[in-house]
Amino acid sequence: MAEIILYGIIGDSFDKLDARTVTEQIRASTGPLAVRINSPGGYVMEGLAIVQALRDYPSKVTIYIDGLAASMASVIAMVGAEIIMAESALMMVHKPWDSSIGNADDLRRDAAKLDRIEEQLIGIYAKRTGLPAARLATMLADETWMTPDEALAFGFVTSIAAPLQIAACAVRLAYGFRNTPATLRENHVPLPTPIPTPSPSDPVAIERGRVSGILAMAKHGISHEALNTMIQNGISIEAAREAVLNYLADQSDAANISHVFMPGGNQTLDNPQVYGAAVRDALVAKISGIPATGPAAEYQGMTVTDIARDYLSRLGVRDVLRMNPDRIINAAMSGSSKARANGWGLGSNVAGTHTTSDFPDLIGDAAEKYMIDRYKLQQSQLKKLARRRDHKDFLVHYGVQMGSWGALDTVNEAGEYKNRSVQTRKEGYRIQTFGNMFTVSRQMLVNDGMGALADILQVMAAGAAETEAALLAAIINSNLVLSDGTAWFHANHGNLASPGAALTIASLDQGRLTMRSQKDIGGTGLIDANPKYLLVPAALQTTAETLVASTISPTTTADVNPFAGKLEPISDPRLSSATAWYLFADPEFNPALQYSYLDGQENPFVDSREGWRVDGTEYKVRHDFGAGVMDYRLAWKNPGQA
User: Fold this and answer.
1) Is the pLDDT of residue 99 over 90?
2) 3 state SS for 533-583
3) pLDDT per residue over 153-182, tens digit each?
């Protein structure tokens, strides 16, 4: 006997229960067919397609309800020549529902459509059960839950089988079903672990059991504050369980997910968070020209117009299949779009979690992600020379060097600790804002011009990276005057070689010795800053890399190169001198330079607004960055040999 498993959400491609997949399985089967159901329901139109495929099947169809047959799953069950329900299973029937957006006429048309669908479902139930249409309409309106005995008595099933080890009812709370009989709630919902009933004569044990039972409900996501309030108010375990049931159902209702998404379980595209991430990643894949993976693969090969059409369809926008590409893009990108309805709007908060943004923001998120990826690939190595310290404002911030400290004093037995005066010297800088704008035009999206957008973002990413590199290079090239009135690299600072010399082991040795001999501000203690980086212009890159990498001195083959593997060469074409080279200490411990981002936002930020002067959406790229000199003693310059 062929077998088809309908465990999950009807119509969901992630569960492989979409109509196309299931009907293909049905048509590929031969001989008697068994269909096993454990489903909270799903999409009506997808389910009706499955119903019709089962009706058209040439051999006998036997339906097995292994766990839950709720909503659309119960409709599919009606097709079987035999409908066998496990003793532990449940069935539920209710009115179809949908979301609708628009004016009064739109809402009336959608309500009429739901009425026609309900009549069709009642007809399917009536054909199986023989119940009058009015009786079935009442059952649907009441959201009727049935045990196997009740389903058999009403004629929804033909027989009852032995129970299966399937958690049939444990999932229903995640779908907003609220009219479950109290007996079913008690018998089937796995809330707190049952507490042994204490003796009625032991009030202490009774209270301990009540408190323990209520606290055990924390595993359902209930805050300890709420549980403690129940305990303090003397709420019974039974009342607490009822409150938890209603709370969980309210959370599902508030999230507008009813019976199409199981939090923490089936992460489907009906979950706004999953959907938003999938669309963003699909757009990133289109921009970058690489295949989409994971949930985003659902949109592989689709144009931006196709993705926008799917987006609008999920929001309940009418007649999207009849819209031309221009109208679809206009509707999706409109700032007054219907995308802000039904918990899918920008900034809405559902059950403590943020849902996906409007379509322009999804475009913006994709653009930002792609740009950040490109930005990270293009960052300048000059940042290696500096220490990062972020700030929360645009004020001037100072790096403070402690001086005149030296070694700690010896403290004899019963001796006193002595105070030492601290001298400070300040160098300051502030964060600046850099940015530009670009427009994603209506024509670009209609034409699926993601390649053009990629070019724009590539330029923006390079611009952000260049902003940082140019600022750091300008600080080095300008040899700016520090707070003591002396240029950064100056003979008075002991960090400028005179005369200049070519890059050799001997000149490197001179620079290292000078840096290690530098003293603190008070002139009493050695800083002992070993150089870690060798900075050179592009003209000296090969010389520097050869010198640092070689284990043998290039000038004397019998001598070992003492700098081999001890200096990391960095070459930058922005350095204005073709001969000057520099040594820098490790900025983690001895920062000569420092750079900062605003409030830790290290990547370029993308914001958007609906275009007014242009057809499209304007996107603004902003980058907050600053850098400055911290200490002249931790770097050394050699002007080189002209």
Assistant:
1) no
2) EEEECHHHHHHHHHHHHCCECCCCCCCECCCCCCCEEEECCCCCCCCCEEE
3) 999 999 998 655 443 333 433 344 556 545
Residue 269, pLDDT score: 66
Backbone angles phi, psi at 488, to 5 degrees: -50, -60
Q: Please state, in angstroms and rounded to a whole number, the distance separating the CA atoms of residues 543 and 264.
A: 58
Among 284, 341, 422, which Cα is nearest to 100's?
A: 341
Helix/strand/coil (H/E/C) assignment for every residue in 174-218: HHCCCCCCHHHHHHHCCCCCCCCCCCCCCHHHHHHHHHHHHHHHH
Which active-site residues does the annotation give?
Answer: 71, 94
CATH superfamily membership of 2-168: 2-enoyl-CoA Hydratase; Chain A, domain 1 (3.90.226.10)
At 636 the three-state DSSP class reads strand
Is 62:34 a contact under the CB 8 Å cutoff? Answer: yes
Identity (one letter) of the amino acid at 152?
A: L
* Nearest-5° Cα angle at 159, 154 to 165: 110
Q: How far separated are the first and last CA of the chain, in Å rounded?
A: 90
Element (H, E) at 281: helix 272-288
d(CA 218, CA 193): 12
Place of tokens 């002992």: 528
Comparing CA positions, the residue from 607, 626, 280 lying closest to residue 436 is: 607
What is the pTM assigned to this prediction?
0.52
- What does the alpha-carbon distance between residue 18 and residue 25 come to, in Å, rounded to a whole number? 11
Concatenating the DSSP letter of every residue in 377-401 gives HT--GGGGGEEE--BSSSS-EEEEE
Instruction: State mean pLDDT over 340-353.
Output: 32
Q: What percent of the chain has pLDDT over 90?
A: 35
Closest C-alpha among 520, 489, 516 to residue 586: 516
Average pLDDT over residues 469-495: 94
Provide DSSP, 28-96: H--SSEEEEEEEEEE-HHHHHHHHHHHHT-SS-EEEEEEEEEETHHHHHHTT-SEEEEETT-EEEE---
- At residue 597, the 3 state secondary structure works out as strand
In the predicted structure, residue 260 carries a pLDDT above the cut 50: no
The domain spans of the chain are: 2-168, 187-260, 272-374
Q: In sequence order, which residues have a C-beta less than 8 Å from that of residue 316 and are 6 or more positions away?
A: 98, 99, 100, 101, 110, 338, 341, 342
Which of 125, 37, 34 has the alpha carbon at shortest distance from 81?
34
In degrees and rounded to multiples of 5, residue 420 shows phi and psi of -125, 140
Q: What integer pLDDT is reported at residue 508 of this predicted model? A: 95
Q: CB neighbours of 114 closer than 8 A, spacing ≥ 6?
A: 95, 96, 97, 98
pLDDT band, very low/low/confident/very high, at 231 (cuts 50, 70, 90): confident
Provide, for the chain, the percentages of residues in helix, strand and coil under a 3-state DSSP scheme, each rounded to the nearest 5. 40, 20, 40
The per-residue pLDDT for 606 is: 80
The encoded tokens of residue 538 equal 């592009």
